[in-house]
Amino acid sequence: MNNLIAELSEKAFKDEYLINLIYNLEKNYCNKLLDEEFIIKLSDKELFDLMRFADILCRSSEAEHKNLSLKIVSLVYEFKELLQNQFIKLSIMNVLTKLGNFPSINLIWNKFENTGIDEIDLDLIIKRLYNKSPIQEIFTDEQLKIFNELKDNNHFSFSGSTSFGKSFIFEAFTKYLIEEHNQSDNIAFIVPTKALINQVSYKIRNLVKSYSYKVINSPEIPKILKKKRWKIYFCFYTRKVNFLLFRWD
Questions:
Q1: More confident residue, 220 or 47
Q2: Which residues are paired to 190 by β-bridges?
Q3: 237: in domain
Q4: Which keywords does UniProt give here (predicted)?
Q5: Which residue range(s) make up the domain with 87?
């Protein structure tokens, strides 16, 4: 079955008809950006075919296939009038569910309602259970992969776009560390810019307020925290880390 899906998705990915459909969809989207009243100029058959291609591609294990399926449904979603069509709306739901893209699913469907399509509803139930994070929010499939890598490796590096949800992953990983190690570890969170310190610290303070942790943004640890045996959650940007290491050397 996996071989069949791989073959179909690879064939779809290279299909000249799909390439032409996406080109026309992108042209329509550009017109929409220039004119909010613009109505998409694709036939029902072309829209149906786009949804079928997206359905095939989203089942692939290849990242570029999944990305293309997401691109298709994201562009179609911009034409809100198309969401009145139940087939298109459910097709978008199906793709987003297969990709585990829960934030986007919540934009088009009430999470407390079933779609009435067994395949979609079962996928949603399974993924909501399997992808649940330690802070009870739902990981996307890609976020879950990163989270599992963090758990399984002492050293792990990854990069992601601004909208990838990196702070969400680390927030969940922080709770995992605290509970898995029974609040025995000091934790350091290094952010790339000074501007992010307050944002990250605020989230972490809310997360650890029921644990014996204190969040500090300075290399100086107050003596009172040492005496009370609090565990420390450091939140620094890189210059402060260098200063701290120099003092401890």
A1: 47
A2: 236
A3: yes
A4: ATP-binding, Helicase, Hydrolase, Nucleotide-binding
A5: 2-130
For residues 38 and 149, membership in a common domain is answered with no
Are 52 and 123 in the same domain? Answer: yes
| Nearest Cα residue to 208 out of 238, 239, 185 | 185
Q: Is residue 235 part of a domain?
A: yes
> Is residue 135, in this structure, part of any structural domain at all?
no
Number of domains in the chain: 2
Inter-residue contact 236 to 197 (CB < 8 Å): yes
Interacting residues of 75 by C-beta distance below 8 A, sequence separation 6+: 25, 26, 29
From edge to edge, which strands make up the β-sheet containing 231-237? 187-191, 231-237, 213-216
Residues 9 and 113 reside in one and the same domain: yes
| Domain at 241, CATH number | 3.40.50.300
- Segment 51-104, tens digit of pLDDT: 999 999 999 989 899 999 999 999 999 998 998 999 999 999 999 999 988 888
Q: How far apart are CA 127 and CA 130, in angstroms?
A: 5
Q: Is the pTM value of this prediction over 0.90?
A: no
